[in-house]
Amino acid sequence: MGDAAAPTLAFIYDREATSQVDSLNHRIATCRAYADRMEWEVVGQWIDRGDAALSDRRPLWRGMVAEMEAQGQGRKIACLVADWGRISHNDEESARLRQLVSMAGGVCVTASGEDDSGEGASRGRLTAPPPPYGTGRDAASKRLRRRGQELSPGVILVERDHISRTTT
After folding, report:
1. CA distances from 38 to 49, 54, 59, 105 (A)
2. Helices and strands, counts by H and E, the chain
3. In degrees rounded to 5, what are phi and psi of residue 66?
4. Residue range 97-106: average pLDDT?
5. What's the order of all strands across the beta sheet hosting 41-49?
6. Range in 9-13, 125-129, 142-146, 149-153 with the lowest mean pLDDT
7. Which span out of 35-44, 145-154, 159-168 was modeled with the highest average pLDDT?
8. 57 or 80, which is more confident
9. Does residue 108 surpass a pLDDT of 80?
10. Gap between the Cα atoms of 118 and 126, Å rounded
11. Is 32 helix (H, G, I), strand (E, B) or coil?
């Protein structure tokens, strides 16, 4: 059983698809200042960059959740973001990603004090499971799945000449 008086463990997350770092550094500094005001212990920061920042795979988000599971053990844990858009601008994707944090025993919190615990200023409690993975895929992705051979989840082999015939 964990120590109830122990500070909340803060896991800072952000994503940045571009190479610019000024805004990113400002958002991280904002999160660190919030954690300091709340007297939380910052475990680390995870930043998905480039294409990973735009996909729903989010390797560093998943790594952060794994670290939450390893370090949480009876402690309060929070995924701290500058704002909700740092998780995702897509509601379904945001719900899926936040559900991973919830399943690890944590909550997602913004640097302005909103959280998804359902108490106080809130984005809304995650009471229902998020939609199944893949329901928000676009039509082009669906066409590729129909015309290709799925090697593993998310990996589809489509012959090059088949792509040329279908895109022209």
Report:
1. 27, 30, 28, 19
2. 6, 6
3. -60, -40
4. 94
5. 41-49, 9-16, 77-81, 106-110
6. 125-129
7. 35-44
8. 80
9. yes
10. 8
11. helix
Looking up tokens 């390797």 gives 59
Say whether pLDDT at 151 is over 70.
no
- Which residue is listed with tokens 């770092």? 21
Sign of CA pseudo-dihedral 23, 29, 33, 35: positive
Structure tokens at 38: 């709340």
Please, which pLDDT band fits residue 4 given cuts at 50, 70 and 90? Answer: low
User: Which amino acid type is present at position 101?
Assistant: V
Give the position of tokens 């399943």: 103
- Please, is 140 exposed, middle or buried when counting C-beta atoms within 10 Å of its C-beta (0-12, 13-18, 19+)? exposed
32: Cβ–Cβ under 8 A, 6 or more apart, which residues? 12, 42
In angstroms, rounded to a whole number, what is the distance separating the alpha carbons of residues 27 and 68? Answer: 21
Q: Which residues, other chains included, contact 82 with Cβ-Cβ below 8 Å and sequence gap of 6+?
A: 14, 27, 28, 30, 31, 110, 111
Run of H or E including 152: strand 149-152
pTM: 0.70
* Cα dihedral sign, 137-142-148-153: positive
